[in-house]
Specification:
The protein has about 90 residues and is α/β, with parallel strands linked by helices. The chain is built from four helices and three strands; from the N terminus they run βααβαβα.
Amino acid sequence: MITNFKYCPIIKTGDAELRALSQLSSSVKDKMHPIIELTRGRKSAKDSKGDINKRIRKLIDIFPYNDFFLDITSDEALSNEDIMSFHSS
């Protein structure tokens, strides 16, 4: 029997997904090792490019003591200059 099994969901950093993750209890988060696809933030009048720093800060708030894998999106529709700079580095 596997006793140290970790659930590895694949999740994008959309508003709904981040809200759902923030509702998880610590005991559930301890059983997860999520693979999180970093996408641009929601564009708005105040933020025309979709700041990824807000997404990263939110992830740190949600998982302050838990590990997660961070994948950088390659989907151009979910990307912006900041994300594309990771691909060109």
